[in-house]
Structure formats: structure tokens, C-alpha cells
Amino acid sequence: MAKIPKPEQLSKIDLKPKKHWSQFPIDIRPGMYCHGAKAKDMKVLELPNARDWSPAEEDWKLPEDWKQTVLDGIKERLEKYRSFHIFMDVCVRCGACADKCHFFLGSGDSRNMPVVRAEILRSVYRYYFTPGGKIFGKYAGARELTVDVLKEWWYYFFQCTECRRCSLFCPYGIDQAEITIIGRELMNLIGLNIGWITGPAANCYMKGNHLGLEPHTIKSSIEFFVDDIKDITGVKIEPTFNRKGAEILFVTPSGDLFADPGTYTAMGYLMLFHELDLDYTWSTYASEGGNFGFFTSMEMAKRLNSKIYAEAKRLGVKWIIGGECGHMWRVLHQYMDTFNGPADFLEQPVSPITGTRFENAKSTKMVHVVEFTADLIKNGKLKLDPSRNDDLIVTYHDSCNPARGMGFFEEPRYVLKSVCNHFHEMPEDTIREQTFCCGSGSGLNASEDMELRMRGGFPRANAVKHVHDKHGVNMLANICAIDRATLPPLMDYWVPGVKVAGTHELVANALIMKGEKERETNLRAEPLPGKGGE
Amino acid sequence: MGIAFSFAAVIALIVLAFIGVKGLNLHFLFGAIVPYAAFLAFIGGFVYKVVKWGRSPVPFRIPTTGGQGYSFPWIKQNKLDSPPTTIWVIGRMLLEVLVFRSLFRNTKSDLNHGKLVYGSEKLLWLFGLIFHWSFLIVLIRHFRFFMVNVPLPIKIMEALDSFFQVGVPLVYITDLTLILGVTYLFIRRVIMPQIRFISIPADYFPLLLIFAIGATGILMRYFLRVDIVGVKQVSMGLVYLQPIAPGSVGVIFYIHLFLVSVLFAYFPFSKLMHLGGVFMSPTRNLANNSRMVRHINPWNYPVHVHTYDEYENDFREKMKQAGLPVEKE
Predict the structure, then answer these.
(1) Is A185 helix (H, G, I), strand (E, B) or coil?
(2) What is the spatial distance between Cα A298 and Cα A275, in angstroms, rounded to a whole number?
(3) Who's near A365: CB < 8 A, 6+ residues apart?
């Protein structure tokens, strides 16, 4: 694996390019990209050109007619997506987006300016699809599609986390996420995905979740949490799986069943739902809220997403709660109903505890767990002792997708402020709708591209460092499973001493449960403030 | 790249019109045929492009949300940045189109000793606004040339525009601000590295062309003083499809008209189509209500899925052993 430079070296970034972007050679550099997709995973997903390949080799084993396939693919997508069509035509290169991208701010690489990341595709669009580009060629900013251009696309479409920060600032709302999504679809037509996306997507397709946990393993993982919860709280929880007739189906990212600190968030859900005596079930078939299909193609996103409604129907539940996750919620909020709806076999969600009707989910019938919890707290249904989190000085990282694809800002803050006594916001240019990505979203959270991730996460880490230095912030709360997987190494690299937690971990720490024993530790088995250790 | 090319192109256009009119006496070509052709290209091209965009469907509802969405009654919504209904979408769009609201958010990032800092950056917004509004007002003012009697709104606009009552003829504020705006947009593109090194000829050319249009217009009105009655005859002739192109009107008028014609003809095939595109951008013109109202994708098609039955077939024994319920024993 490529060695990552030290933070002092990495943070020497020149944000002022010295020549035109098209004059920089393409340098496909180790540490900045992920391994190629594997043949076996591509076969499972029925993706074209399934073969093992490596981006490090000269020969990417492209199909013979790759060029025509890509051009046909562009044409088809121009006709299918008004967004793509308009975004190809109307950019004026005003540059407002240029310094809004975390990858540009962390690398100074011109092609990481959203405008240029779009321009590398737009130039080809002009050459083949516009009269100006056909006649005036490079004077109209047009260029031919070659293998080198293709490699450039691949390299830079996998240096975009589809966070939409650029689209917030664009006067025409040009959304690089949309262009990246379509760019990656084009890549997938000729077999150029990355292993870290096709692997989880193939797992999800066959086994129901990205991690490839088989049904019995899911059950045993959760039972393991149940044992831990018993040790910490004295309360015995008995979750159910694939249970027909439950009122609610609960779907969350499988990452939280697997690795710390996401596991503590999963324990948080278990404790909360138990305390409420909620009539809910886990599913082993729809055991993934996240959707790495979304990073492959819209079709793949739909194929993976279909399981949620299918399982809700099979089990006969009334509505669905979704766990904390970023891109999962973009799909659930903006795509699921269109993909796989209408969910007319479900009922409009009503909280059985508070009676609140979730008007905002009346069509999809799927409620965000943080909405659910915010409503509980607002209605005084939870007994909370925020002082159990008093050793934590918390800040909140808005995940890109709930921020700019949902407008989900106040619910998590309300919950966090209810369960923690020490909360400080990061600077306003780095939160809410202006939030910075963790740097590893959209399927880039592999290990071989660690330098890319540390660069992409630099603006986020920089803002955390600000509140770490100023307020002593030591906990970065979030509502995203990818954040929980990717922010810990980012913090270790840039801001040592800051830990990462899902919001429901902190909720569960503060939650006073019926019949619980005097708690000595938090969910991480660390002594609670004032209980030994200190 | 492209500054010299674009500059040369605009000079060539000016020279072309000059030679054509002054040298070859092609008044009718430059005073009637080219303007008609350009106008047709503009209308035809604009409609073609908008129709083409419109024929591409909007398969998903993908607004970029810039504020708190619709949630509980006790959570304050930001209805403009996360519009719950069409009315608020219209509000968002109006602010976007009329006052460039997204651009108003613009910030500037700098790296100071390893620390990223963000400052406010409103100049692009300010000069962009000055440029576009000036251009619009100048354009509307020109309608006096296309109507027998000048309508009152245009007279009022002219009066306001010459509010300072300076010079003979009175100086229009927007003549100056148009030049100011276009000059700023050009200079920032040349001197700011982040902008210069993303620019292509198609960025410089329209700016220089518009500068030349403004400059020839100003020359004509304030300095070279063309035969204004003749100008009105030409423009009225164009409107009433009885074109005349008298030689008595100075060549500067023909150059101005030719450059305007080029701009019109160039418009639909260039980035200037952002004028149409801004209204149709799906990240701005849709409500953030996707969980409340189902959005229909006209090309939604059935996909190959891995069904529960297939899944259970794969894992039935393991599920039974783990005590998980199964459909088929």
C-alpha cells in the first residue's frame, strides 16, 4: 500500500493553479485511487465486461467497442436526464464552485474543481453532440474521447464523493454529484467500477447487506450486542428477526453491526426500541440501509433498494424506520418511492408512543430514526440523564446527503443537545448546508486510497481541529455509518484525541431504562464520568 | 488560452463589417439579411434547445436543499432553501433568477499555515448582477427603436436611467454599468488563477463581443453621433418586414448591428443558454417533498432483483439452525 505523507507535508497545498487544467498530465498515483472491480463481483451483479483488472496496469482490458458504448451511453443519458443534459450545456465557468470541493481544498489539483471535473466530460460531450464542438473543436472546448481521457474520467469520477456542496453555490444548481453519478454509470458500461463498490454491492445483492453477513451471523452479531447491553445496564433485550406481523420494520446500514464505533450506535437502537417496547423487527433479507448500488448506476441502486419495500410487504409491517446513514437517506428520501413505490401496502407512519403522524413521510412510509427520537424527546417520553455524557465535548458533523439532499439539520441537533450537556458547533462555513464531506463517501472508503481520503477529509478535520483547540471538543457526533467508519482514521491523522460516535450511541448512554442497574460505564465499557477511572 | 483567439475573432468581426459596409457597400447584407438570419437563428436555436431539454424527462426529484426541510411543527423550516410546495419553489426560483441568490452565498477559501479559512466573496455576485441587469435594461431601452410611439414604461425607464442628467445627450447609467460589469467579469477571468485556468475561448469571446457591442453603442450615441432618424428607419423597416439600409447611417451603426447579430446567432449554441437553463435546473426548481408526494419516473422499468425466495433458498438451513423463521420448511 502507498505510504501516506505526514500531515505537515500533506497540508502544504497550493490552491492557486499555475497553468490551465488541460495542461497538467494525468498521474494515476497510488494512494489516490481504489483497486479495480473484481470479475466475480461483476458477474454477480450482471455487469458488463466482467474480468479482473488493475488501474495500475497500462491495459485496462476494455471491450473492443468501448468508445461507441460510452458515446451511446452519453446519448441515452442526455435523453433520460434533463439534469445531465442541462448541466452539459449551461456552465459558464464562473468558478464559484472551484474552491468549494473538499478534494480540491485538500489537494490543489485543478481537476478536482467541480467545474473541471464536469468539464472533462463536457468537453467530450461538445465534441460529439454539439455543432459548436464539432466545428470549432478545441476552440469550443471540445476534445475527442481517447483511452487517456477515459482514464482521466475514471480517476476523477472516483475522486468525487457526490456530496453536492458545489451545487449549493452554483448559480444554475449544476450538481457535480449528478455528473459523477452519470459518469460512473458510463464507466460501468465498460466494466470500470472499483472493487470497494462492486464487492459490497454484490454482497448486498446476494446476502442482503454490504458486509456479506449471512442471516445467522446477523442474528449472532446482534445477540452479542444484547449481551454487552446486559452487562452494562442489567437489562435483557430480546430483539426479533424476520418477524411477520410486527408493526415496524427497522433497516439500518450493516456497517453498524460490524465495526466500532458503529456497533455502539446499533446498541443504542436496541436499547431505545426495547425501552419503548416497540413492536418492531429486524430483517436479515433487507439487512442493509446503505446502497452501494447508488455508486454504480441508478439501475443498481434500484435493484438493491427494492428489498426494503419487498420485505416490508412480505412481513406485513405498517411502516419502516431507517437508521442513521447518509447516502442511504438520500436514496430513501429522493429516490426510493420513485424507484420501487408506491408503498400503498403500508400505512402512514404514526409513532405508537407519541401519536405523532409523520406527515413528511406520508408517501414513502419511511421515517428517519432521528426524527422518531426527536419526537419522543420533544414529547417527554424518554427519561434522560445527559450528565452521563459529561466527559464528552461534542460537535456535530452534518453528513452531506441528509444535509443537501434532505434538509435534515435541526432534528439531530435537538437530539444531541438533549442528551449531551456540552455541545459546540463548528464554524458556520463548514456545517449544515455548507457541510464538508468526510472525504470517503460514495464508496471511496477503502484502505488503498488512504491519501485521497485524508486529503478529501482535510476541510472537515480542519473545522474539527478548530473546535478541538477552542472548546476542547473530543467527540464528533454524526448520523452516518460511513462517517463512523471513516472519521476515526481521519481524526487520528489530523486531530488526534477526537473520537467519533453515532447520535444514538449518545442517546443510549443518557437513556434511563426501566429496571436498569446503576450504570458504571458507557456503551464503550469506559467508566462513566465520576465513576472510577477519573 | 483563448484570450488572443477571442480578441482576434471580435476584431475580425468588426473589420468584416467595416469592409463590408464601407468598402463593398453591402448595406443591405449587414443591415437586413444578417440581422434577419441572426434573429431566426436565435429564436430557432433557443426554442430548439429548450424543447430538447424539455424532452429529456426529470426522472428523480433531486432538489439541492439549502435549509431545514419540512419536519415537525416545532422545527422551524427554511421554506425558500428547502421548498415544501410549488409556491415556495417559485419563490426560490425568482430569487435565483432575479438576484442570483446562490451566487450570493459565495465564499472564498484560503489556506493559512495549515488552517483553512473562509471569507465572504460577493464581488462576483455584485458585478454579475450589475452586468445582467444593465444588459437587460439596455436591451429594453432599445425597444424605442422598434416602435412608432415609444411606450410610457420605456420612457420612464429612460428617465430613471438618465437620472443624473449629465451630458448631451444624457448619459445612461446602464451604458456605463454594462461596460463596468463586463470589464470586471473579463478582468477576474484573466487575473484570478483559479478562473483563468478553467477558462476556454468560449468564455472570453462572449465577454469581448459584449464589450464591443457596448463600446460601439456608446461611440454611436455619445461621440460619433449617427443619423438617429436613419437608425430608426432601419429598425422599423426590420420590424415591418420592409427592410431598408440607407448608406446615410454611419458605418459604426452597421458594425454595432453586426456584432449584435453575431451575439444573437451565437447565443443558442453557447453557454449563454444559461439564460434558459437556469429556469429548468432540477436541483433548483423542484420541491423538497419526495417523501410526501411520489415522483414518477416516466422511464422507470422493471429490474432484475434477488427475491426473498431466492435468498431463503440460499440460506434456509442456516436460518433454521439459527432459529430464524422461514417461509418453506
Answers:
(1) helix
(2) 38
(3) A312, A318, A319, A320, A343, A346, A347, A348, A349
**Average confidence (pLDDT) over A108-129:** 97
Q: Among B198, B278, B310, B321, which would you mutate to test the A interface (most chain A Cβ atoms within 10 Å of its Cβ)? A: B198
Amino acid symbol at B117: V
Check residue B1 and give its pLDDT.
60
C-alpha torsion sign, points A340, A166, A414, A506 = positive
Measure the CA–CA gap between B250 and A43, rounded to whole angstroms.
Answer: 73
Question: Distance (Å, rounded) from C-alpha B38 to C-alpha B207?
Answer: 19
* CATH architecture, domain B3-298: Up-down Bundle (1.20)
Chain Cα centroid distance, residue A425: 21
Whole-angstrom distance, CA of residue B232 vs CA of residue B234:
5
* Pair A180, A117: CB distance under 8 Å: yes
Distances (CA, A) of B165 to A261, B168, B172: 71, 9, 9
Q: Do A407 and B81 touch (CB under 8 A)?
A: yes
Residue A211 identity: L
ipTM: 0.95
Best of A21, A87, A90, A123 to disrupt the B interface (most B CBs within 10 Å) is: A90
**In this structure, which amino acid lies at residue B230?**
G
Range(s) of chain B covered by CATH 1.20.950.20: 3-298
How much is the pLDDT for A3? 81
- Measured between CA atoms, how close is B240 to chain A, in angstroms? 32
Interatomic CA distance for residues B102 and B313, integer angstroms: 53
Element (H, E) at A475: strand A475-478
B69 to chain A: nearest residue by CA?
A407
Query: Which chain A residue has the Cα nearest residue B118?
Result: A429
- DSSP, collapsed to helix, strand or coil, labels residue A251 as strand
Which among B72, B198, B288 has CB closest to A113?
B198
Which pLDDT score, from 0 to 100, does residue A399 have? 97
Q: Which three cell numbers stand for residue B149?
A: 410611439
Q: What is d(CA B230, CA B218) in angstroms, rounded to the nearest whole number?
A: 17
- The string of pLDDT tens digits covering residues A209-266 is 999 999 999 999 999 999 999 999 999 999 999 999 999 999 999 999 999 999 999 9
The per-residue pLDDT for B166 is: 83
The three cell numbers locating residue A109: 489539483
- Phi, psi (5° rounding) for residue A304? -75, -40
Quote the minimal CA–CA distance from A518 to chain B in Å: 33
**Chain A window 294-323: which residues touch B at a Cβ cutoff of 8 Å?**
298-299, 302-303, 306-307, 310-311, 314
Beta strands per DSSP E along A154-298: 248-251, 280-282
**By CA distance, what is A330's nearest residue in B?**
B62
* pLDDT score recorded for residue A534: 46
- What does the pLDDT average to over A67-71? 98
pLDDT band at A295 (very low <50, low <70, confident <90, very high): very high
- pLDDT tens profile B279-304: 999 999 999 999 999 999 999 999 99
- The per-residue pLDDT for range A162-171, each reduced to its tens digit, is 999 999 999 9
Smallest Cα–Cα separation from B206: which of B290, B144, B252, B265? B265
Asked if B66 and A404 count as a contact pair (C-beta separation under 8 A), the reply is yes
Number of other CB atoms surrounding residue A359 within 10 Å: 14
- Residue B120: list chain A partners with CB under 8 A: none
Question: In angstroms, rounded to a whole number, what is the distance separating the alpha carbons of residues B222 and B255?
Answer: 16
The bridge status of strand A475-478 relative to strand B107-112 is unpaired
Which of chain A's residues have a Cβ under 8 Å away from the Cβ of B93? Answer: none
Give residue A532's pLDDT band: very low, low, confident or very high (50, 70, 90).
low
pLDDT at B177: 97
